[in-house]
Amino acid sequence: MIPSSDTPAPPRPRPEAAAIAAVREGLEARFGNRLTTSLAVREQHANTLSWAANQPPDMVFFAHDVDEVAAAVTLCARHGVPVIPYGAGSSFEGHTNAPLGGLCIDVAAMDKVLAVHAEDLDCVVQPGVTRKRLNEHLRDAGLFFPIDPGADASIGGMTSTRASGTNAVRYGTMKDNVLALQVVLPDGRVARTGTRARKSSAGYDLTRLMVGAEGTLGVITEITLKLQGIPEAISAATCPFPTVRAACDATILAIQSGLPVARIELADAAQVQAINLYSKLGLPETPMLFMEFHGTEDGVREQALRFGEIAAELGGGPFEWATAPEHRTQLWQARHDAYWAAMALRPGARTLATDVCVPLSRLAECVEETQRDIAESGLVAPIVGHVGDGNFHVCPVVDPDDADEARRLQGFLERLVDRALAMEGTCTGEHGVGQSKMKYMEREHDAASLDMMRAVKRALDPANIMNPGKIIRL
Amino acid sequence: MIPSSDTPAPPRPRPEAAAIAAVREGLEARFGNRLTTSLAVREQHANTLSWAANQPPDMVFFAHDVDEVAAAVTLCARHGVPVIPYGAGSSFEGHTNAPLGGLCIDVAAMDKVLAVHAEDLDCVVQPGVTRKRLNEHLRDAGLFFPIDPGADASIGGMTSTRASGTNAVRYGTMKDNVLALQVVLPDGRVARTGTRARKSSAGYDLTRLMVGAEGTLGVITEITLKLQGIPEAISAATCPFPTVRAACDATILAIQSGLPVARIELADAAQVQAINLYSKLGLPETPMLFMEFHGTEDGVREQALRFGEIAAELGGGPFEWATAPEHRTQLWQARHDAYWAAMALRPGARTLATDVCVPLSRLAECVEETQRDIAESGLVAPIVGHVGDGNFHVCPVVDPDDADEARRLQGFLERLVDRALAMEGTCTGEHGVGQSKMKYMEREHDAASLDMMRAVKRALDPANIMNPGKIIRL
């Protein structure tokens, strides 16, 4: 297991029992059993997909609207009790752990799509709406929300972690697709951080300050999102390459030449091997790219064919592509199964999903060095990458009871981050910091930037009640 | 003239003469005549394109590198002297005025393109590089920087005002195109707000906090920008429409259907009339759209033809389009001349360029109500719009010596902002707040959001030395 020293205690005391009791009684009086102290519920809300030790909150409140969230935060502010916002619980880095206890506010029931403005290509949703449900809701209007992190995450959580995923190369990340937010501030007041205008120069960008703040500056209670028209046509394609470098070079050439690729995903040879085992396929066990193109019928054909030419120049092939939905699904099946295929490599083992991001020109080098490191560390760790962004995931599959393997894993993770930072990259492209990557913040950011972050946090949450012990050591 | 009550004094005293002298002597000793107190230079740096009264700084320093900027800011911090960053001086809202005097730091000589990373589609520039010079520099590499606010603004200034312009509908605004910044903080320390990774979830988004902060949180000394490959082909098009609404509806349909239009500009009938007079053209004096499409040869042909079909459905036409550079230039000439044509409507008069932005579905209504208001106010004020974003400019042409006209103008400007805000829009889509739009901040943002902005400003610049008296009343 990852040593618990990874999750330092935040610099404020745990609240007194009386403070916890005051919040509990206040919420119970008003909301009855929507405030629970059940251990099972608390543990489930603490930490689902992370390796960090489970640190449950003292209580969980299932909120139904912004007024209830504001009432709960106000009560917590009065008594100095930590507040941990909770959406779908699909984050990876211990974001929802409660190292100081406190109140977890579960917003999953705030799952209404409040408005869809088709002419403006935007919508307003509550934070508990998941991306899949949103896209089901939008389908009849001919619209879609492009950010796809894989998991059926909540929009609130995706906003809080600055999520992105497979479509980001074309449509950007949450940072680029949130127009405005409604937020309950640490003092319980409700703020709207923007309007539905597509752009504004009217003051500090509070929206972007909240996007990626991981619940440390407030609780997001409403999100206004940009939408896209469902493309008239989609083409999908796959192409094996002799090396990771050839696959990356093909990606660079495609993007440089303005090919508006919507998704371009890399699976390394280890990942393809895992997929073959899991899905009983016979793919060539070399690095492979999965692509998707969005546009008109003619446009997506042209894009696919152009990419095929670029791939051939770099020794890739056979290049396969399709526009019919069933054939597209078939081509992408292997990519969709990647996570489960990795898990299946060692039944009973645990996986840890981590991510780093580097400039595109350094991606091949970073992935290849990482592969060597994996081999030298004696680990099993397939790699998949959002290669158009220089972002890749390593998914070590580890025996949780093998202390030596855990030690080797820990060393590998440290080197992975150092490697990305040395290549002008970042310790996380899309998963966020949470607890588990806090220690890397000092490596990635200079002292003056860290002080800026601390100053902002202290200014907006002077009592440090909002998700304490996350992102940055105060 | 716009009453000077528009520009309230910021809540801190003017520095003592001794403090000014200490900064002046310190900089003179080190930099000689790169520190100047010439009145002409000071007035030129205060306020170039705004109607706000000229408020010159006490002195102007021509900085050559980040160390010099840091030295100057450190000195100002020690003595409590205001710092006003200055790039090309092309901002509209009194951003560079010095209501409390202080030191203007002119970074125009920091005009180096420090690095171009063609494979990563990014570059690193100093703040004094102008966008035209950057694009000249990039041309041979087959790259371009898409943000085009019209003026040949400096990249530092464009970053500070969150500028955008004609290409934003396709390529986003400065917010979307700045990867990272180097900033001299109000205490003189130098911070880097990000890396060259295309995306990151590693902590608060300091980059976006600085973009649009108008120099109130620090001096930008280096900018890492996203770039685009120069498209293989460009098509340009124009189309007159019977009404503003028909032009806006055509735009909405095009965007909804996923047509990746690169520029789509509206000129209203008054603007077309002005163009006809100025450029001796015979355009039909009805609302007109100017478009540009970027892509492959086939792609831009398809896009232009599709738009032509949409325009015809909505009663627009004749639709003209071209791909040859000289023909494209000819089609767009009228749009390029718009500002000069407006100026020429009343020789000797002054123009005021203002902007608001509303959701696209409200744009036609907002423009039409604004046109009625212009007529009823007895003003001359052509309108051009970045119609794909819902952003439009009104360019009143006013006799500066006519007090009654100035009064009518003032009332009109107030109503323009109120109209945009009532339609879920913003008081400025791209020009920024500066001094002149400070009074609208309370109308646009709720009290909690304004308090967040104040808290951030106070936390990062507790002595309020950075461009005081801009954006927000403290």
Describe this structure in words.
2 copies of one chain form a homodimer. With 474 residues, chain A is an alpha+beta fold. Chain A has 4 domains: 4-108 and 456-460, Uridine Diphospho-n-acetylenolpyruvylglucosamine Reductase, domain 2 (2-Layer Sandwich); 113-229, Uridine Diphospho-n-acetylenolpyruvylglucosamine Reductase, domain 3, CATH 3.30.465; 233-340, Alpha-Beta Plaits, CATH 3.30.70.3450; 342-444, Alpha-Beta Plaits. The first copy, chain A, has helices at 17-31, 39-46, 66-79, 131-139, 155-160, 168-171, 174-177, 206-210, 244-256, 269-279, 297-313, 325-336, 338-344, 360-376, 403-422, 438-444, 447-460, and strands at 35-36, 59-62, 83-86, 103-106, 113-117, 122-125, 143-144, 178-184, 190-192, 219-226, 228-229, 233-240, 261-267, 288-295, 320-322, 350-351, 354-357, 383-386, 391-394, 397-398. In chain A, helix 14 packs antiparallel against helix 15 (403-422). The radius of gyration of chain A is 22 Å and the shape is globular. Mean pLDDT of chain A is 94; it is low at 1-7. The interface between A and B is large, with 98 and 98 residues.
At CATH level 2, the architecture of the largest domain in chain A is 2-Layer Sandwich
Q: pLDDT below 50 for ≥5 consecutive residues: which ranges of chain A?
A: 1-7
Average pLDDT of chain A, to the nearest integer? 94
Strand content of chain A: 15-25%
* Number of individual domains of chain A: 4
Helix content of chain A: 25-40%
Q: Span from first to last CA of chain A?
A: 26 Å
Please tally the helical runs of chain A, counting DSSP H or I stretches of 4 or more residues: 17
Q: Quick one: biggest sheet of chain A?
A: 7 strands, antiparallel
Largest interface, counted by CB within 8 Å of the partner chain's CB = A-B, 98 and 98 residues
Largest sheet strand order of chain A? 15-12-14-13-18-19-17
Number of strands of chain A: 20
CATH class of the largest domain in chain A: Alpha Beta
Question: What overall form of chain A do the CA principal axes indicate?
Answer: globular
By oligomeric state, this entry counts as: homodimer
CATH fold-level name of the largest domain in chain A: Uridine Diphospho-n-acetylenolpyruvylglucosamine Reductase, domain 3
Judged by helices, strands and strand pairing, the structural class of chain A is: alpha+beta
- Gyration radius over CA of chain A: 22 Å
